[in-house]
Write a structure and sequence with these properties.
With 399 residues, the protein is an alpha/beta fold. The protein folds into two domains: 5-141, P-loop containing nucleotide triphosphate hydrolases (Rossmann fold), CATH 3.40.50; 146-396, no CATH class. 42% of the residues lie in helices and 22% in strands. A hairpin with a 2-residue loop joins strand 12 (381-383) and strand 13. The radius of gyration is 23 Å and the shape is globular. The chain starts with a helix and ends with a helix.
C-alpha cells in the first residue's frame, strides 16, 4: 500500500484542532485508503480503538445507518462510557440523509475530531456551508501523481526507467488501483468501471439526468479537445449537427455537474497585462489521462496529454491555474499560490525554427518565474534566458 505521504501529513498536521476536516476528490482517487492509513497512525499514537469510529457508507454493513437519526443513536451506543476525544471518520457521508445537521451536532455533543469524505463538490455547498461556515478545512485528493506512480513501481521492484514508466502513466493514468495490474484488458475493465460509477452515480443521478447519451457526448467532446478553448455554444451546435437535440443551457448544466464530480477542472483565462480574470473561452482538463484514453479509445496528441498532466500536477501542488493572455498571445499556464506566481509553457518538443514558446514568455516584462516544459531532452537548457526543463524531471521533483 502506497503511503500517500503528502495527504497523510496534512491530516497529521491538523489533528485535534477544532475544524472539521473535509476530504474531497474524484471517486476511486484513494480517499478511503488515506483515511485507513490515518486510522493506523492514530492507533500507533496510542489512541484506543474504541475511540475511533470509522464508517464507510458505501459498505453494505452501514446501509441501515444512512439516516442521521439512526446513525446518531448508533453512535451514542458505541460511545457510551468512553472517555477522551472521539475520532469520527465518515467515508462518503453524502449517502446519509441530513448529514450536515448530524456533523454539526456531533461537534456540540462530543469532544470530537471529525473527518468526512465525499466525491462531489456539493459537499462544500448548501447546508454544510451554512452550518459550518469557517469551521472546516478541505483536503483535495487526486489520483497518483507521476512521482507517486514511480515510487509505487520501485517499491514493487520494477526497475524500468522513469521515461518508460511515463509512457505507461500517460496511457493508463494514475488511479491507485491500476499500477499493480499487469493485464491490459483488466486495466480497461477497471477504467470502464470507474468511468461508469462517476458518470452514472456522481453526475447523472445527482443531476437527475436521464439523457445519458447526451451526457456522454459532452464528455467525449471535452476529452477530445483538451488543451483547446471551449465554447458552450459550439458544443451544443456540434451535438445538434449529429442529430441529438440540445441547447447551451443543458450543456452548461452538464459541464457544471462534471466539474462538481471532479472529473473535469476548468482553467479560465487571465489577462496578464491587465491583471484581470476573464470568464470566457475556458479550457477543461480531465482528472486522469487514463479516463481520456480509455473512453476515446486512443491516446491522441501527446502534447495535449502532457499539458493535461502538467495542469493536474499544478493543481495537486496547490496552485490556482489560469490560461494566460498577453494581447493576442497565449501562455499555457499562469499559476498562483499565495504570493507566488509563475508562467509555464508546455511543448512536446521545441521546433528548431519556431520560437513561439519562449517568445510568448519574453513578452511578459515582470520578474516572476518563467519556464518551458518539454518531453525532448535535447531541448533542455536556457533559451533567451528562459529555463527549459525536461517535463519528466519536473514531475518527479518538488515545487
Amino acid at each position: 500500500m502506497l503511503a500517500r505521504d503528502r495527504y497523510l501529513q496534512w491530516l497529521i498536521d491538523v489533528k485535534d484542532n477544532e475544524f472539521i476536516k473535509v476530504i474531497t476528490g474524484v471517486r476511486r482517487s484513494g480517499k478511503s485508503v488515506i483515511l485507513q492509513l490515518y486510522q493506523d497512525y492514530l492507533l500507533a499514537q496510542s489512541v484506543l480503538p474504541q475511540n475511533i469510529l470509522f464508517y464507510n457508507f458505501e459498505h453494505p454493513a452501514n446501509f441501515r445507518l444512512t439516516d442521521a437519526g439512526v446513525l446518531f443513536d448508533h453512535i451514542q451506543q458505541q460511545t457510551q462510557g468512553l472517555n477522551g476525544k472521539i475520532y469520527f471518520i465518515f467515508d462518503e457521508i453524502q449517502e446519509v440523509n441530513d448529514w450536515q445537521k448530524l456533523v454539526n451536532g456531533l461537534r456540540v455533543a462530543f469532544d470530537a475530531d471529525i473527518y468526512i469524505t465525499g466525491s462531489n463538490a456539493n459537499l462544500l455547498s448548501g447546508e454544510l456551508a451554512t452550518y459550518l461556515a469557517g469551521r472546516y478545512l478541505e483536503l483535495h485528493v487526486y489520483p497518483l501523481s507521476f512521482k507517486e506512480f514511480v515510487d509505487y513501481k520501485q517499491l514493487n521492484h520494477n526497475s524500468a526507467s522513469p521515461d518508460l514508466l511515463f509512457d505507461e502513466y500517460l496511457k493508463w493514468g494514475g488511479f491507485p488501483v491500476l499500477p499493480s495490474v499487469q493485464n491490459d484488458a483488466v486495466k480497461k475493465e477497471i477504467l470502464n468501471g470507474i468511468y461508469s460509477s462517476i458518470v452514472l452515480k456522481d453526475v447523472a443521478a445527482r443531476g437527475n439526468i436521464r439523457e445519458i447519451n447526451l451526457l456522454e457526448r459532452v464528455i467525449a467532446y471535452l476529452l477530445d479537445v483538451i488543451g483547446s478553448s471551449v465554447s458552450i455554444k459550439k458544443i451544443a451546435d456540434t451535438i445538434n449537427s449529429s442529430g441529438i437535440k440540445t441547447n447551451s443551457t443543458s450543456i452548461d448544466k452538464y459541464i457544471q455537474l462534471l466539474k462538481e464530480s471532479f472529473i473535469f477542472y476548468e482553467a479560465n483565462r487571465y489577462d496578464i497585462r491587465g491583471k484581470v480574470r476573464l470568464k470566457m473561452q475556458a479550457k477543461y482538463y480531465v482528472v486522469d489521462s487514463g479516463i481520456r484514453n480509455n473512453t476515446l479509445g486512443q491516446i491522441g496528441s501527446i502534447g495535449s496529454q502532457l499539458e493535461n498532466i502538467i495542469f493536474i500536477e499544478l493543481k495537486r501542488r496547490g496552485y490556482e491555474v489560469f490560461v494566460g493572455k498577453w494581447d493576442a498571445e497565449e501562455i499555457d499556464f499562469v499559476c498562483f499560490k499565495g504570493e507566488q506566481k509563475k508562467y509555464i509553457q508546455v511543448a512536446y518538443q521545441l521546433p528548431e525554427h519556431n520560437d513561439r514558446e519562449q517568445r510568448n514568455l519574453l513578452h511578459i516584462n515582470d520578474n516572476y518565474q518563467k519556464i518551458i516544459l518539454t518531453l525532448n531532452r535535447m531541448n533542455v537548457g536556457i533559451i533567451d534566458g528562459i529555463p527549459v526543463q525536461y517535463a519528466i524531471d519536473w514531475l518527479l521533483g518538488d515545487d
